[in-house]
Amino acid sequence: xxxxxxxxxxxxxxxxxxxxxxxxxxxxxxxxxxxxxxxxxxxxxxxxxxxxxxxxxxxxxxxxxxxxxxxxxxxxxxxxxxxxxxxxxxxxxxxxxxxxxxxxxxxxxxxxxxxxxx
Length: 118
Fold this sequence. Notes:
InterPro entries: DUF2620 (IPR021238)
Oligomer: single chain
Shape: globular
CATH class: Alpha Beta
Protein name: DUF2620 domain-containing protein
Organism: Streptomyces yaizuensis
Pfam family, one: DUF2620
């Protein structure tokens, strides 16, 4: 399964996720436009985007191209694994969060995604 990272903290997010060493999960640094092209036809499964607010630049293009129902922002909050799991089960593929929350949010999202696909 391929998870894309984007936004201003895309490299930090990718490094954080790679350090988790989740079985069967490939991490790729991406732009939002590239992510839309990969997510649409299923060449990637998820996108994690970061920006200063977690809702603007990290998700704007993807909301426009993939639709709001595929996207969710946590903004500056830190979700639980259950919250992320429910979103994944409901079809959410794009997650946004604040760049200063990468260390807390990105691992929670990635682990919940991996658990949902185990």
